[in-house]
Write a structure and sequence with these properties.
Elements: H1 6-25, H2 27-37, H3 39-50, E1 57-62, H4 65-81, E2 86-91, H5 97-102, E3 107-110, H6 116-126, E4 130-134, H7 140-149, E5 152-158, H8 171-180, E6 184-187, H9 190-199, E7 206-208, H10 212-226
Parallel strand pairs: 1-2, 1-4, 2-3, 4-5, 5-6, 6-7
Helix pairs in contact: 1-2, 3-6, 4-10, 6-7, 7-8
Length: 227
């Protein structure tokens, strides 16, 4: 089973440790750090009071607003297919907080830093059946630990630009275990699918499905036209 490397864990810890200092000069970094500081505890409290172990739980993660809108489209499609499921949504950017509050989910919050402790704590508390990353914001510690628990790991609206830093060394090597944990990936285009494979997703697990955000917009236009 894939697992993150010691260098990745060291860099993740360094990034988390530097965030308060970086936040002094950057309000967005400061806001994000403040939101993440107690996010794990808040999500664990929700799980303790509201998690129903007899129901499936789907956990969506999106970095910011654009990725969140793509996740929203998939959420809308999943609800009628899994009407009894519980849904959790996490985000990384402060700009996505308002979107998170209006999504049809049972709990929404910041995603804590990608460290072994918080990842293990949340997976144990939430016990997700499916973990879905939107676009490209896959976090290796969370993904590998989820897969090790038997949780299916998916990517929707998979997009990897040709110039993405994730494709270059050393990022690709550090992130590879996370992508190797993916059970299924929906890519927007053939090129995106090829690049997801380069990142570590097994080719047979990649399907080209287009952009769910545009599919949702087209459905809304058709609905208005039929009124």
């Amino acid at each position: 089973m894939p697992a993150t490397s010691l260098p990745y864990r060291a860099l993740a810890r360094l990034g988390a440790a530097l965030a308060p200092a970086l936040g002094v000069a950057d309000a967005k970094v400061r806001q994000g750090h403040d939101g993440r500081r107690d996010a794990a505890a808040r999500l664990v409290r929700w799980a303790e009071t509201s998690r129903d172990p007899g129901r499936l739980l789907v956990w969506f993660h999106a970095a910011s607003v654009g990725e969140g809108l793509q996740a929203e489209s998939v959420l809308a499609a999943l609800h009628p297919l899994l009407p009894g499921a519980q849904y959790v949504y996490t985000h990384f950017s402060p700009s996505a907080a308002a979107l998170a509050r209006r999504l049809p989910v049972d709990a929404a919050d910041y995603l804590p830093y990608d460290l072994p402790g918080p990842a293990a704590l949340l997976l144990a508390a939430l016990a997700p059946d499916l973990l879905v990353f939107s676009k490209l914001d896959l976090w290796p510690e969370l993904a590998t630990r989820a897969a090790a628990r038997g949780t299916a790991v998916a990517i929707v609206a998979g997009t990897v630009s040709p110039g993405s830093g994730r494709l270059r060394w050393p990022a690709r090597r550090l992130l590879r275990p996370g992508y190797a944990s993916v059970t299924a990936a929906g890519a927007i285009s053939e090129g995106d699918g090829d690049r997801l494979e380069r990142l570590g997703v097994a080719r047979e697990r990649v399907q080209v499905l287009g952009d769910p955000r545009f599919d949702s917009a087209a459905a809304k236009v058709r609905a208005v036209g039929s009124d």
